[in-house]
């Protein structure tokens, strides 16, 4: 997997490159929008990570250019701005996800992985991991054939975990996707819901499917990490 | 009536000044009046005496004091209504008419004696009944060489009555003038001070968020114009320094983000590799936690400076506060249960408010979060909602540690923490309630707190209901 990082702060670009390389990605760095666009044209990338405030060609200008050439390319934008309109503008311009500086690297990594797997688990087909089965249409969950009763939020949370199974999802990602919100207060709520879910899904089974990734978030997987 | 108002002072001073002026002026007028009246009286007496003398002298054969006087004599005597007595130089009475007789009868004997022996000049006399008279004596020389003295007197009653009347009018009008002038002063003061009230009313509406407000000068009075101008200039200066402060805050927070991002990212990436001692690892993990806290503070400062600068735009649409409060209470119940805290939600009425869903959620969530944070384990939080014709009232009450009275006015200030040592672990920079207040006020709402130390705290919110017609609550 090859990722293009367009970031004018060299130290940010460096730790992102280092971290992503440790995680097995191939990373190219561009220091401004122009260089970024040149590299993008010269090479095939699986994902572009770009800062919105770039010299020469800004991220806002760059996103439509990239989109035009590769409509399905996952683009993640990074910015130091938080104002809501920026966020809306960023998503309208066609980036797939959005991170605000300062961000946690684990958060970035988790989002990149989700973007790269995007599309695979969408749809209404049954979702499963090990002996846990979730039917999005009938809204039914069962483990080892035993049906499990879940509240709406618990169901939405489990569905989100299942759609991203084997991936680490951060609390922020869960809050944004399950609660449709972006406030810190909710990250505590996530922990509580995860506990509920664990009680209903994992209790009494040898295999613990919902796993905590310390300092990052959670993952639903059939094998221990 | 507040005696410490400018209006009171102006009204009273005005009244007092007018009254003192009136008293002094009235006294001077009275003195002038009496002086002139006395002088007029004397002059008139003199004129009458002269007239009488002329008439007497016009009889060339000398004055005939026999009763068979000439018609000219009679006319001359008749022309004088005052009392008169004619004497020789030694004061022996030569002639007295009816009036003269009357004068003799009624005047005090000593006074009469004094008059009769006076060849010229004025004499005051009193009757036995106490009536006052004034006499003029003048010697008339006839061509024949005969000399008689005329004593002509008039009653002072009329003059004294006039003086008394004048005095009474003046005396009675003093309190009246006092009342009227204080009243007029009170009214004029109010009129003159009204523009100040108007200026004050506008000034009261100016908050740090609305510093661009300028007072529109509707008055043409120069003094008020000057006040308004200097006020506006002051507000403009304030606005500039607030603006500078906000920009500074925003810039500092903004500038901190990149170094923070680098610190956090590099630390995290370093931690992912296993090539380090446990000691360094634990230091890095601790650093990472502190960086997280720093990040939250920077984010909060930035958000607050953004909302204060007005760059946060609310997207308002009809929102049912009931579902919002119910949802959030249910979600937070889970957090609360970890510490055995119950969130009791009363039956809530539907209440549609024009609101930005995200921000309102954030505000109410913040309050619920605080209620849990400051509750004791096993405590209770009550959430209730009341709706009236135009507004909805939301109340969130906990039974926790409460807020001391001295802290209450400050809890909505940014960066205010009730007890620095106590809540350091709970994160944030104390911006929570400042943001909540901003959100509520941005929805034309109000937030109040009722609390006592160790008696819990109640936060009361109030929003105007949406007036969009035909909207049926979901």
Give me the oligomer status: heterodimer
Q: pLDDT average of chain A, as an integer? A: 83
Strand element count of chain B: 12
CATH superfamily of the largest domain in chain A: Response regulator
Give the N-terminus to C-terminus distance of chain A in angstroms. Answer: 21 Å
CATH architecture group name of the largest domain in chain A: 3-Layer(aba) Sandwich
Radius of gyration of chain A: 19 Å
- CATH top level of the largest domain in chain A is Alpha Beta
First-to-last CA distance of chain B: 53 Å
Strand order of the largest sheet of chain A: 2-1-3-4-5
Low-confidence stretches of chain B: 470-474
Lay out the secondary structure:
The complex is a heterodimer of chains A (225) and B (474).
Chain A: E1 2-6, H1 10-22, E2 26-30, H2 33-42, E3 47-51, H3 59-69, E4 75-79, H4 84-92, E5 97-100, H5 105-116, E6 127-129, E7 132-135, E8 140-143, E9 146-148, H6 152-163, E10 168-170, H7 171-179, H8 185-201, E11 210-213, E12 217-220
Parallel strand pairs in A: 1-2, 1-3, 3-4, 4-5
Antiparallel strand pairs in A: 6-7, 7-8, 8-9, 10-12, 11-12
Helix pairs in contact in A: 6-7, 6-8, 7-8
Chain B: H1 6-57, H2 71-78, E1 83-87, E2 93-96, H3 98-106, H4 109-116, E3 121-126, E4 132-141, E5 147-155, H5 157-205, H6 222-272, H7 278-309, E6 317-320, H8 321-337, E7 342-345, E8 352-355, H9 357-373, E9 380-387, E10 391-398, H10 432-442, E11 446-451, E12 457-464
Main features:
heterodimer, A: 225 residues, alpha/beta, Rossmann fold, Arc Repressor Mutant, subunit A, five-stranded parallel beta sheet, four-stranded antiparallel beta sheet, 8 helices, 12 strands, B: 474 residues, alpha+beta, Beta-Lactamase, Helix Hairpins, Heat Shock Protein 90, 3 domains, five-stranded antiparallel beta sheet, five-stranded mixed beta sheet, 10 helices, 54% helix, 16% strand, rod-shaped
